[in-house]
Amino acid sequence: MLELNDITKIHKGRKRAVDGITMRLGTGVVGLLGPNGAGKSSLMRIAATVTRPTSGQLLFQGADVVAKPEVLRRQLGYLPQDFGAYPNLTAREFLSYLAAVKGLAARSARARIDELLETVNLTEAVRRPLGRYSGGMLRRVGIAQALLADPRVVIVDEPTAGLDPQERVRFRNLLSELAADRLVLLSTHIVSDIESVANDIAIVAQGRLLRRGAPEQLLRTVTGHVWETVVGPDSVAAVQARHPVSRMVRTAHGVRVRLLSTTAPGPDATPVSPDLEDAYLAVVGGMPELAR
Asked: Is the model's pTM score more than 0.85?
């Protein structure tokens, strides 16, 4: 459905925000996972036709999107990381305005807006000006506007920022439903958001695509290399200096450490099943020998 061929974006000062990324994207949720500053947002803006690549090719169903962005824009719903709204409008007024801009008929737009306001749990705040919304509520308005025209391609950049845990679950469930017959490209640095919905994960860092695959493929790269051990508080720094540590929990018996190592890190270390956070840590620099 969407093809990115050797996409590169060089900003002023010659910084490569995106460095030669090639991906073919089809139906389903594709999770773009990487640390802050990895180039995710730059890549998402290119895919959403907001900015042009310095070089490379973007195709939608075979058509050149760089030359003719309207080919994709007619089928696109986009939620940028820095989404903003008119503070004096209510959610309904704001969505009605955007529906008119997108060319939706007034009657169908009203029904669609009512449906979306319920989907994002904003029906009780529908008469309140957006300037009085919390950050999480504004994010939900942003999600609704991205879905207004029932797009075939949905691009969402850090969509759960500011959402509480219950809202994040609601949104992830919504993405899963949407992905049944369309492409959803989701960018985040939160591993749990990707882990629960994406059937295809692309890990990026420093503008480059480091690894891509299904969650089970990524987990296989670290199977047998994830350990837990309990150490004294004074030993934590030494452990962190020798091994990538994914998490630590203080207990009555010491600090329980979960880490990556190709061999047992100590006589009392226990091998444990890997999760996506372990695989992500290995790929972005913790254990590059496992990320090949």
From this structure: yes
